[in-house]
Amino acid sequence: MVKKKAFAKLDLAISINPIKSNNGYYPVDYIDCQADLYDEILIEQKEKDIEIICDHPDVPKNKENFVYQAVQLLKELKGDKKLGSKIVLKKGIPIKAGFGGGSSDGAAVIRGLEELWEIKLNEKQLASLAKVLGKDFYYSMYGGLAEVQGKGKNYKVIALSPHLPTFWLLIVIPYVEKPSTGWMYEHLNTKDIGRSLDKLENLKKAIYQKNKKDILKNLHNDFENSVVFYYPVVRDIKKDLVKVGASAALMAGSGLSVVGFFENRERAEDAKRKLRNKAYKQVLVSKII
After folding, report:
1. CA angle at residue 122 from 116 to 127, to 5 degrees?
2. Which range of residues forms the domain containing residue 82?
3. pTM of the full structure
């Protein structure tokens, strides 16, 4: 048996180039880190079959599960039909909220199966898996503070400064859920994207200088304006977070959660208390790791 923790992904920057590549995709640059929210995973050997057990009612246990798909691809890559696994997921990362929980689970399970099945994936094999499983999976295979460049289904992960300054987070999750990330790309307002390339470079510079003020100033998400058009609750949450003392507020991934940034845990906990009467699905205190 192998135990793994799969940590939530947090996008500090999403910069979408409005000029599509020849492959029809928008080139995208991300600055990613991880938050101290995680799923706990137990992985056991099993003959042939892939069995998924999860304590969350909204997580599929069949071939629709991202982890199932990742394991099946690894089996095919290994070329051994006798391989199987039993995977138990204990969810701590909010689902369908912009934190890449399924992708992080998939990456953690792949790393666990490397141990159980006594294999070691090379970079070419990882890139092959990522073409099917996506950017968040590819990032989660590495984790840490990194720039992730995406051109179509080709990804590159570039490690940045080892550590960010300490930021505490207040994560607010509304009841309403968004469609898929693919839907968000289809509904992008191209007039609202491509304006943040300077912010991307300024954010990287601030990270290396550990300049907290400039880090907060240059957080950005090119999905945000387009998402707010269809889901104004994102704008409302951002306003609420600023009112209760957040130094900055940013939509998580393609939404619909919003993350408030705070100087310390006490301020984040105080802000959480101030929001207790708001009609939100979840309000969580965490921090960047």
Report:
1. 110
2. 2-159
3. 0.93
